[in-house]
Write a structure and sequence with these properties.
The protein is α/β, with parallel strands linked by helices. The chain has helices at residues 14-28, 41-44, 64-77, 91-95, 115-124, 136-144, 169-173, 187-190, 195-204, 220-229, 247-253, 268-275, 289-292, 307-319, 321-338, 341-357, 387-399, and strands spanning 2-6, 31-35, 82-85, 105-110, 130-133, 152-154, 177-182, 209-214, 236-240, 256-259, 279-283, 300-302. It has a six-stranded parallel sheet with strand order 2-1-3-4-5-6, with helices on both faces. A six-stranded parallel sheet has the order 9-8-7-10-11-12, with helices on both faces. It is elongated and about 70 Å long.
C-alpha cells in the first residue's frame, strides 16, 4: 500500500472535504491517504474537524526551518512515500518540496485559478513530480506560465452520487421560483453583492421568487445591508453555514443555483446542486464553468458581473417550468455521467502510481541549514490594488480568457 500525506488545514472548505470524501475510496485503490495539517497541532486539537479519521496532528516549532525538519522526520518515521500539497495555501507546506529527501515523492493539487497559486507553482516546479489541475482553465494557465506539460494532469472534482436521483415533479408545481446561493459570503472572489441586483431584476420582471443564502463570511453584513436597501428583506433568507450532509435538502427544494463568482477551481456546490436537479445560472468562466455546464442545456452561462443577464435567465426559467424541468433532468445526467467522486479518486490514484513508476527527475534538494522563506508567497504589487478595481480588472481580463 502506498502511503500519501495530504497537507491541508482541517476546515469547512472544499480542500479538506476532498480529504474526508476520498480517504476511504483511496484505500480501495491500495493508497493510505492521511492528512497532516501544516501548522502546530496544539492549536488545532480543540477543533472538531481535527478529530476526523486520518488527521495526524504534529507539534511543530515556530521557526519554519525547524518545523520543516520535524515534518520530514515524521514523514520518514511513518514511512510516507509521497506528499500532496496545496501551493499558496500556507508557506510551510508550499516550501516543503524543495527540502524533501529522494525517497518521498511530491504531488501538488491546484484548487483555484489565481496568481497566488500559480506563482509558487512556477518556482517550485523543478521539485514537484506531478501537478493536478482541477479544471481545464487551470491547466491552460499553467501552460501559459511555462510549467512543463508532462508535469500536469487535469482531474475535475467529483461528488458522491445518490443511487436514487431527485425528482423535479414537486418543484414543477411550486408557485414560487426558489433561488439558492451556496458559498462563502465574500465579495472579491464570490461577487456576492450581485445577488440583490439579480433577485431585484427577476422580481421586477414579474417573477414570484425568493432566495436562500447558505454560507457565512466577511461580507455577510454588507450583503444583508444591500438586500435591506433594495427592500428585499422578505424575499431573502440567510441560513448561515450548513453541514455538508444537510445540503441535499436545500438543493432538492431549489429551482436554481445562482453562481456569480469571479474565479473558482472546480466548484463542489455547483456539482452537488446539479446532481439534485437544481439548475445553475452561472458566470461564464472559460475552461471552468463551461467545462461543467453545457450552456442552454444543463444550465445557463452569463457574462461575469452582468446582473441583468442573470435576472433575465432566472426569469425565463421561472416562466417556462417545462423548459426548467427538462434542464433539471439534463443537469443531473451531466453530473452522474462525468463527475463522480469514485472516478475522480481513481484518476488521482492512477497519477500517484504513475509517479512511482517514473524515474525521479526532480532538482536536487536544498539544505535546511540554508532555509529560505518562499518569496513567491510575499505580497506583490497585486496586494496594493483596491478590491473594487481588482474585481473590474478581473472582469475585463475574463473577456479575453486571462487570469490575474
Amino acid at each position: 500500500m502506498i502511503r500519501v500525506a495530504y497537507f491541508c488545514e482541517p476546515q469547512v472548505g472544499g480542500t479538506f472535504r476532498f480529504f474526508t470524501r476520498t480517504r476511504a475510496l483511496f484505500r480501495e485503490q491500495d493508497i493510505d491517504f492521511v492528512c497532516m495539517p501544516p501548522m502546530d497541532g496544539r492549536k488545532l486539537r480543540p477543533h472538531p474537524l481535527a478529530r476526523e479519521q486520518g488527521v495526524q496532528l504534529l507539534n511543530l516549532a515556530s521557526k519554519p526551518a525547524e518545523a520543516t525538519r520535524q515534518i520530514i522526520e515524521e514523514l520518514e518515521l511513518q514511512r510516507i512515500q509521497a506528499i500532496m500539497i496545496l501551493p499558496g495555501c500556507d508557506s510551510l507546506s508550499t516550501n516543503l518540496p524543495c527540502y524533501l529527501p529522494p525517497n518521498i515523492r511530491c504531488l501538488a493539487r491546484l484548487p483555484l485559478m489565481t496568481e497566488g497559486v500559480y506563482r509558487p507553482v512556477r518556482i517550485l516546479a523543478p521539485w514537484i513530480d506531478r501537478m493536478v489541475a482541477v479544471s481545464p482553465r487551470i491547466k491552460d494557465d499553467l501552460l501559459d506560465r511555462e510549467v512543463p506539460m508532462e508535469k500536469i494532469n487535469m482531474i475535475p472534482n467529483g461528488i458522491a452520487l445518490s443511487l436514487l436521483k431527485s425528482s423535479s415533479a414537486l418543484r414543477m408545481q411550486d408557485s414560487v421560483f426558489r433561488l439558492l446561493y451556496v458559498g462563502r459570503l465574500e465579495e472579491m472572489q464570490k461577487n456576492v453583492l450581485l445577488l440583490p441586483k439579480i433577485l431585484c431584476g427577476a422580481l421586477n420582471r414579474g417573477l414570484m421568487a425568493d432566495l436562500v443564502v447558505v454560507g457565512d463570511g466577511p461580507d455577510r453584513k454588507r450583503l444583508e445591508y444591500a438586500f435591506h436597501q433594495a427592500g428585499l428583506d422578505d424575499r431573502v433568507h440567510f441560513r448561515g453555514a450548513i453541514p455538508p450532509d444537510d445540503m441535499p435538502e436545500y438543493y432538492q427544494h431549489a429551482h436554481c443555483l445562482i453562481f456569480p463568482s469571479r474565479y473558482e477551481g472546480s466548484p463542489n456546490a455547483m456539482l452537488e446542486a446539479m446532481s439534485e436537479g437544481c439548475v445553475p445560472v452561472a458566470t461564464h468562466i472559460r475552461g471552468l464553468t463551461d467545462h461543467i455546464i453545457e450552456d442552454g442545456t444543463s444550465g445557463v452561462l452569463v457574462p461575469m458581473g452582468a446582473a441583468e443577464a442573470f435576472s433575465k435567465a432566472v426569469y425565463n426559467l421561472g416562466l417556462d417550468r417545462q423548459h426548467w424541468g427538462k434542464m433539471s433532468e439534463l443537469a443531473q445526467q451531466r453530473i452522474y455521467k462525468n463527475f463522480s467522486l469514485k472516478s475522480t479518486t481513481s484518476a488521482y490514484a492512477d497519477v500517484i502510481r504513475e509517479v512511482f513508476q517514473s524515474p525521479d527527475k526532480r532538482a536536487e534538494r536544498l539544505s535546511l541549514d540554508r532555509y529560505t522563506p518562499p518569496c513567491s508567497l510575499h505580497a506583490g504589487w497585486r496586494a496594493l490594488i483596491p478590491p473594487a478595481i481588482k474585481g473590474a480588472i478581473r472582469q475585463w481580463l475574463e473577456k479575453h480568457s486571462r487570469s490575474i
